[in-house]
Amino acid sequence: MDKLNQTAEIIRVRFAPSPTGYIHVGNARTALFNWLFARQKGGVFVLRVEDTDIERSREEYERNLIQDLRWLGLDWDEGPDVGGNYGPYRQSERLELYHKYAKQLLDEGKAYYCFCSPEELEKEREAALAEGRMPVYSGKCRNIPRKEAEKRRAAGEPAAIRLKVPDEGIVEFDDLVRGHVEFDLKLIGDPIIVRSNGMPAYNYAVVIDDALMNITHVVRGEDHVSNTPRQILLYRALGWQPPVFAHLSMVMGKDNTRLSKRHGATSVDQFRREGILAEALCNYLAFLGWSPPEGHEVLRLEELVRLFDLSRVSRSAAIFDYEKLHWLNRQHIKMLPAEKKLELALPYLQETGLVGTEVTPAQMDWLKKAIEILIEGVDKFSELPQKFSLLFDFEPEKLDEEAREIIGSELAKKVLAAFIQKTAGLQEFNYEIFARITGEIKKETGVKGKDLYHPLRVALTARASGLELDKFIPLVEEGARLNFPKSILSCLVRLNRIKTSLNL
RNA sequence: GCCCCUGUCGUCUAGCCCGGCCUAGGACAUCGCCCUUUCAAGGCGGCAACACGGGUUCGAAUCCCGUCGGGGGCGCCA
Fold first, then answer.
1. Spelled out in words, what is the top-level CATH class assigned to the domain A338-502?
2. A14-57 pLDDT, tens per residue?
3. At the fourth CATH level, which superfamily is domain A1-80+249-335?
4. Is the pTM of this model over 0.90?
5. Cα–Cα distance list, A256 to A220, A270, A308, A320, A448 (Å)
6. Which residue places its CA closest to the C1' of nucleotide B40?
7. How far apart are CA A460 and CA A396, in angstroms?
8. Nucleotide nearest to A201 (CA to C1')
9. CATH 3.10.450.50, domain A95-201, yes or no
10. Where exactly are the structural domains of chain A?
11. Residue A286's beta-bridge partner residues?
12. CA A476, C1' B49: Å apart?
């Protein structure tokens, strides 16, 4: 347990995903916790690719994985793409290593060949389950003499290699987040360490890799707790000292089942596309099961590194809350400089065709101002184009009920009539003119406040809600002169349209 | 079924290890008010939890036992 304090040795942790698709937020959290721990302790963070499942592993998945992790803001000191002194960092390139130690275990009589067929084993398992026992391998092949086993193998009989596990006793370990955990050896059968196709089994490969890579702390998901005793047994058989373990609780969906697609976005990639900031996602992920001693919740990566503490990680599963993620994202967006917001928002606006691929400096300048105003209260960047439709779309024929109601009152009609009359013949329009005119109307009719501004907003935007007009008018007037692919109508044009549309 | 882990507001959690400072704190969500040229944002305030049952103790969210709930595992997947 106190390997942490008692040694001056450098802390080495790893994140070891299998490249079988896009990286899930649950795994991302594991990666983040490892990274935070390493960075805070001045340790080493290793990326290792567990690609021994030939069926599911794809090279492109490794690229996705690296891309996602980098996007999150994580970096590693050793890994398949950056090298290091403990390589190779792909399990598929470490096969000789696994074979070497398997042979050693075989030679020392700590492991043996098993000729049982999968069908046979399946039958035994079912029988055990039916009797209410935990399915444990019978040890049938345990005592086949090595010579005989070699002969059968030479004859072409497929064989897996199993580790011999003591029949009695307990295996225990002190988990950094869960405390003391122990397992009864009676319930642990001899695990397969090398499959009959020659590939190492997961429980074996991790041990070889973690040990050879000098990993001091294994921080991983709770789903590995029950693998831990088997792995410890392997460390023992090899005469190695096991690392310190820390098992993180699972991330669940709203209905308390494992977070999956049906709960919404679950891959890092999806969040990135939606316009969730990496910092916000890290911030949120860090708070899934962990909280800093002081109450601040909106934290940047460096602050997380400073405050992070594995022993403060909670042991119970956490439900992924999109609302809170969005709130954090809003907070992080707010902290961004205007240039950065523009840079991040641009692709979304281009994608929806509001903005062309070529953007003039004047358009850029306008966009920066518009984004600064419209981003308020937006959960993620993908929602921004929707917000921009306030500026780009004007459809007086499609007023909603609320807008009709506002514009339908006697008072509203009076205001609109006056406004239209006072703007008739104007060649130019801006907020100063608007303010002057509304001032006059106020004086002449006595209408003020909401009664005055609501109808005017409906007239200028064709909707019941939107921006304050002192922000809206300058944006629209300037935007109207900028030749966007989809043009913005000036206020005077809008007024004309609404006039004909409503027959005023 | 068996094994392991876990159980504080709807959600994330603080407090638990070292019982009294807990009338259980914060954040998201929600509700209300304020601000206001709507909405939002912001400010202020409200609602809201120690799973249950037994102990131990002068005193228990905190310690012990049991029950129930939730999760994970039980692969020649990782």
1. mainly alpha
2. 999 988 878 999 999 999 999 999 999 999 999 999 987 766 66
3. HUPs (3.40.50.620)
4. yes
5. 20, 21, 26, 9, 52
6. A377
7. 9
8. B76
9. no
10. 1-80+249-335, 95-201, 338-502
11. none
12. 50
